[in-house]
Amino acid sequence: MCLGVPMKIVDLNAELGTAQAEISGFRQQIRVDLLEDVKVGDYVIVHAGFAIQRISEKDAEKTLKLIEDIFFDD
Fold first, then answer.
1. Residues facing residue 30 across a β-bridge
2. What pLDDT sits at residue 22?
3. SS3 for 33?
4. pLDDT tens for each residue of 24-42
5. Which of 35, 53, 65, 70 is most buried, judging by how many CB atoms fall within 10 Å of its CB?
6. Alpha helix segments (H runs only) across the chain
């Protein structure tokens, strides 16, 4: 199963097409060259280290809640 995870862009190096993205305190370097005009503070769906879609903060929060409910609910 493949899963794209919402992450927030916290640092950006547009020249290299990379960014630092964060989810629940975990940071990961990702590629952002598939998207145009990515900015710090944007929420993106990350799959296999690539930002593949920009989403709203509201949608990111809803998706993260669903993931939490599915994988971490007792």
1. 19
2. 97
3. coil
4. 899 999 999 999 999 999 9
5. 35
6. 57-72
